[in-house]
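Rap1a immunity protein domain-containing protein: structure, please.
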Amino acid sequence: MRMVLTAAAVSLVLAAPAYAAERTTEAFYSDALALKAKGPMALFSGKLKPLMAEGKAAGEALRQQRLAALKRGEAPSYCPPEGGRMGQQDMLDGLGKIPADERRRLSLSQGMLRVLQTRYPCR
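Here you go.
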């Protein structure tokens, strides 16, 4: 019984970022482009660290979901190469390829998942 409760608690903690009130992919993408347009001055913006933290949290939640699926013996949503990492610019480029009307409907996690599935499809 204790093991079941512990597993349930861990599941809730890992799932929490995915269910938290996320901004849309469009809001994140627009803010990222605005910061990028500032060039080196973006380093002095108060929006940079929160935006980077938001992107990192969404990416980590997707990673944890993928690892949990593998641990359960299920097919993962995307299959990156061992040790592979996607750069920030690659992710922004991928988000930019999603049509704007779709970006407005997708949460950041959903948009990032779409980019990861396109870049790292499971074969």
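Notes: The chain has a mean pLDDT of 86.
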